[in-house]
Amino acid sequence: MTKLAEIVLNGFALGSVYALIALGFVVIFKASGVINFAHASLLLLGGFTVAKLHDDLGFTLALLVAVGVTAAVAGLVEMVFIRGLGRTEVHTLTILTIGVDILLTTELTRRIGSDVLSLGDPWQAGVRDWGGVHVADARIACIVVAVLLIGTFFAAFRFTAWGLSMRAAAEDREAAALMGVRLGRVQLIAWCVAGALAAVAAVFLAAFPSAGLDRSTGQIALAAFPAAILGGMDSAAGALLGSLLVGLTSALTAGYQSDLSWLGANLGDVAPYVVMLLVLIWRPTGLLGSKERVRV
Prior knowledge:
Elements: H1 2-32, H2 39-57, H3 59-82, H4 90-112, E1 127-130, E2 133-136, H5 137-159, H6 161-171, H7 173-178, H8 183-206, H9 217-220, H10 224-231, H11 236-255, H12 267-282
Antiparallel strand pairs: 1-2
Helix pairs in contact: 1-5, 1-8, 1-10, 1-11, 2-3, 2-4, 2-8, 3-8, 5-6, 6-8, 10-11, 10-12, 11-12
């Protein structure tokens, strides 16, 4: 029972990180209709910035700078490659983000090399013992920070003018533009928000029990992509639900790997995609995704 409790807590912590990343996918998709495959490289950029600055600035200030840098780079990608190309097909822009990801990842990988970088987080290797259940301090912090940030996001999405504009643009871009919604501004803010969330997620992906930030950390972000698809690409709540399911699935399959050895090694890496496929067979739009209605 103790082992199950530890696995579930770790699953929720992992799901919280995935939620920060998956929200980035969803908010960009809702604002621009583009699936941003450069999200992984933005996450790696945020983590790399913290790793390089925390010795001089301290962890908190380094993280704030990283959030600003990553948000700015994400906004630059939107202005130059998404909005800057004018009336370009959405699928073309989606493919373009793959090229941006390759460029950013290649440069960051060159700079990181074979090193494993410490981000200087204040939790280090601290572990708490609650009735025999051992949980890393970084995992607890991850859940708390994710709850605060996701709560702030949903409040902004529901009660601010930007959130109203976002919902209107997601429903009907042309009608929203005719009603005075500044689609360019809405889209730019969405990309910046996604970049900022990715930078925060990078800290917890590289925190204990992980060894630190390395060249492969950005690839872990792609595990959040099934979470966004699973929940529904146009649903922020779906991204949260999908992330928790993916996090729990990964943690459970990894924790009970020895009992599932007949299914092969590294089952935890594959399990989220299996769950995603099973859900999509049953519900192609995702758990909370909107069903497209076509008038005939």
